[in-house]
Design goal:
With 190 residues, the protein is of the alpha/beta class. Helix content is 26%, strand content 29%. The protein has five helices and ten strands; from the N terminus they run ββαβααββαβαββββ. Helix 1 runs parallel beside helix 3. The longest helix is centred in the middle third of the chain and has 12 residues. The chain starts with a strand and ends in a 6-residue tail after the last strand.
């Protein structure tokens, strides 16, 4: 059974998106790309909101960039190998392979996907992830704390949700970020 993982680079004060709509809180270089690619090798499906998909679809053709360094090609290949589901009421078509559109989030469908999958699933984007967090279907939380505060915006965790989490792992990144791996207390030992 696949785990549902929620992971994003987040400001040190807990925001996944700043008040101006930005989320470039940390420079992501070769070491970070290599680390993130390794984390994503177990992922068979990415669940995206429209904006996150439009950001990540760059990886569909990143390997074709002239003089693309090996770490870019590797990350692109990992991304391309997974299925993608984009949740959007307005997106007309997708521009990547292995991608489909869903018009609404359904927690029961996510549970079925988890039960049927031998691979992990990630959910990316704080608006979409808020549905999964509130429904209690997230198995792991993997925020990447960037060395920057932004003072407001969209939080990584949705307002009004209380979680007791257990830290399973951590990794310091070269750009000054800190990757954390938590499970809800009811999932200890995962």
């Amino acid at each position: 059974m696949g785990k549902l993982i929620y992971s994003m680079i987040t400001s040190l004060d807990g925001y996944a998106i700043d008040a101006d709509g930005g989320f470039d809180f940390m420079e992501v270089g070769e070491e970070e790309h290599d680390f993130f690619a390794e984390q994503l090798r177990s992922v068979g499906t990415f669940l995206y909101g429209r904006r996150m998909y439009e950001t990540m679809v760059f990886w569909e053709t990143a390997h074709l960039l002239e003089e693309a360094p090996p770490f870019i090609v590797d990350f692109a290949r990992v991304w391309q190998a997974a299925d993608k589901v984009v949740y959007s009421t307005t997106l007309e078509e997708v521009t990547s392979e292995r991608t489909r559109i869903e018009r609404s989030f359904d927690a029961a469908a996510i549970r079925e996907l988890q039960a049927a999958s031998d691979s992990d699933i990630t959910i990316d984007g704080p608006h979409l992830a808020a549905h999964a967090v509130r429904a209690g279907v997230v198995d792991e939380y993997q925020p990447v704390l960037a060395p920057k505060t932004v003072g407001g915006g969209t939080p990584f965790f949705p307002a009004g949700v209380r979680l007791d989490l257990t830290l399973l792992d951590q990794h310091r990144l070269a750009a000054g970020g800190l990757w954390l791996r938590y499970v809800p207390a009811t999932h200890e030992g995962a």
